[in-house]
TrEMBL record:
Residues 32-161 form the DUF6644 domain. This is DUF6644 family protein. The lineage of its organism: Bacteria, Pseudomonadati, Pseudomonadota, Betaproteobacteria, Burkholderiales. It comes from the Bacteria. The chain crosses the membrane at residues 35-56, 68-88, 100-120, 140-160. InterPro entries: DUF6644. Keywords: Membrane, Transmembrane, Transmembrane helix. The keyword Transmembrane helix applies.
Length: 162
């Protein structure tokens, strides 16, 4: 605990962290990058999830997945560094903030859910690629994914108020 708190205090005193807190433009610019990134991330994941749930059944799931999920992964190049920079502005307070902690847990659960989806129901996608209902496990994963990402967005937005 002591070591962790020391690292966070040191981080808060770095020139970058100070600039994030005190510069008029830096924080909002980084926040815009964060938002643009997660709009692509959550947008593409949710559109894929809706296809798995049965919307636009004539579109092949595997091809749609190759297109959308590639963009979801690419968006992390914006979302994660921007998130870490936003964190660096107030590391001590945020590390202690229950909503921020919950947000990180939900991000981890959303990642695990995506991994489980690929390792389990997605392996048989050839059998339900077009014009078939996805198996119940795939549909369950899609609903869970939408709920988890909604939770991440809610926690992110709530951070401004708690
Ligand atoms: C992975 C998907 C992520 C999503 C969907 C997400 C979502 C959000 C949302 C909706 C906001 C509020 C934006 C606003 O109020 O204008 C936000 C802000 C923020 N996010 Fe993320 N975020 C993600 C990842 C991360 C990561 C990995 C970190 C850091 C480790 C992080 C740290 C922050 C911080 C510190 C804020 C600023 C809160 C504030 O200024 O009030 N985020 N995020």
């Amino acid at each position: 605990m002591e070591i962790g708190a020391g690292v966070l205090t040191t981080l808060a005193a770095t020139p970058l962290s100070t600039a994030m807190r005190e510069g008029a433009w830096l924080y909002p610019i980084v926040e815009i990058v964060h938002i643009a990134g997660f709009a692509v991330l959550v947008g593409s994941v949710v559109l894929f999830d809706l296809r798995v749930l049965g919307f636009a059944r004539n579109l092949p799931v595997a091809e749609l997945g190759r297109h959308l999920l590639r963009w979801a992964l690419a968006s992390l190049i914006l979302v994660i560094p921007a998130g870490l920079l936003l964190f660096s502005a107030h590391p001590v307070e945020l590390a202690d903030n229950r909503v921020f902690q919950l947000k990180l847990v939900l991000i981890a659960l959303a990642g695990l859910n995506a991994l489980a989806f690929h390792l389990l129901p997605y392996r048989s996608v050839a059998g339900w690629d077009r014009n078939y209902a996805a198996p119940p496990l795939a549909r369950f994963g899609a609903v869970l994914s939408i709920l988890l990402w909604l939770g991440v967005i809610s926690c992110g937005r709530m951070l401004a108020y708690v």
